[in-house]
Design goal:
By secondary structure, the protein is α/β, with parallel strands linked by helices. About 50% of the residues lie in helices and about 10% in strands. The protein is globular. Bound molecules: iron/sulfur cluster (2 copies).
Length: about 450
Amino acid sequence: MFINHELITELLKKAQNATKEDINNVLDKAQKREKLNYEDIATLLEVNDKDQLDRLFKIAGKIKNDIYGNRVVLFAPLYISNYCVNDCVYCGYQRCNKFKRRKLTQDEIRQEVKILEKMGHKRLALEAGEDPKNCPIEYILESLDTIYSTYNENGNIRRVNVNIAATTVENYRKLKEKGIGTYILFQETYHKPTFIKMHGKSIKNDYYYHLTAFDRAMEAGVDDVGAGVLFGLSDPKFEVLGLMMHNAHLEEKFGVGFHTISFPRLKKAEGMSLENFPHLVDDDMFKKIVAITRLAVPLTGIIMSTRESAEMRNELLKYGVSQVSAGSITGVGGYKEEEEGKNVDQFTLEDHRTPIQVLKELISDEYLPSYCTACYRMGRTGDRFMSLAKSGEIHNVCTPNALTTLKEFLIDYGDEELQAMGDELIKKEIEKIKRDDIKQIVNNNLVSLQNGERDLYL
Ligand code: SF4
Ligand code: SF4
């Protein structure tokens, strides 16, 4: 088993005796961009001293800035079915919650997608509960076809990441053939006894099958996989080391680790009370684990959803997060029925801003919002993506693509205020580009966009 519980427990115990000097030594190592080992990560998880915490955030911020610049990628979730045969105690969709379950028809999916396209989205995360009878793989595959073939004026969805239950190599192969982006699956908790306790009598309650889902996905050729833990179920320090061991396992076996890691924190949901969860993660610990993850896996995207408040998302963008969702609804058919309040959401959301509001705030804070989906469309996935990222050349494709997709958004969806803010930012960002050929590409793209061309990528 590649999640070595004894080793994690031992490392965490040993790290409790870490001195200030030990912590400083690890911070020095991180500052020099040396790879951190498990012991280093366990040591960092013990940082509590204010000066050392500040230093941790500063190093994480510098790494974030060197690799991602000020770009922030945007996406939205699309819930298509809330049928679920599982009884995850933390989730509003758990089967013992009695409400009228539904899955969207293909027509309803088209309607939802059109609304998302009108919001300017290009990248979706498709979400569905686990129910082999009511929500079989064929339904997911058909839905993917529907999403990719739905166009709304200038809008189209260019990348669909898929978050469905652990499945077989054969099914992952089918998903791959439909052109999915990242396959996302949260382990929920790496701590096996907690995993078993959280999942009752349900088919999800097979720790090993769940844990090896990415192995099967990669065997099937899905080379971008996105991990996550539901922070609050078990000791967050254990979870961070679990994530690192899982990532190392994939790197060792397939040559590439996680494409992204999501950082959801447990929130109140229908049929559960937060009082029953002793490991809730407070804001300070949450910030710390995001920053440590940035140090430990610098090239892995960190995703934050609207479960977190705008303030927390803004804070974490400084030193870790590289992708955020915007304008999200977590109920099935919810984009259409938002005002009617009919849905049972999967969990409670904190950030209710529209994409335009999110973009305005990002731009005010000098971030560059990006709707880029280029790597997936150009076949830069898995180790091809990682080798570009490792070469440090990724800036030369991400920045032009971010500027092009932002301009595309401004033309197609921006209000007057956003257009002015966005154009100003684009001008400043072009000035910052050092290579003349890249500057030229961006300028050409901006002209092409004004002339009605779309889908311009490097
Ligand atoms: Fe079902 Fe997923 Fe919710 Fe568990 S977390 S009850 S599998 S929808
Ligand atoms: Fe992401 Fe690739 Fe676009 Fe950069 S170029 S933002 S890595 S999809």
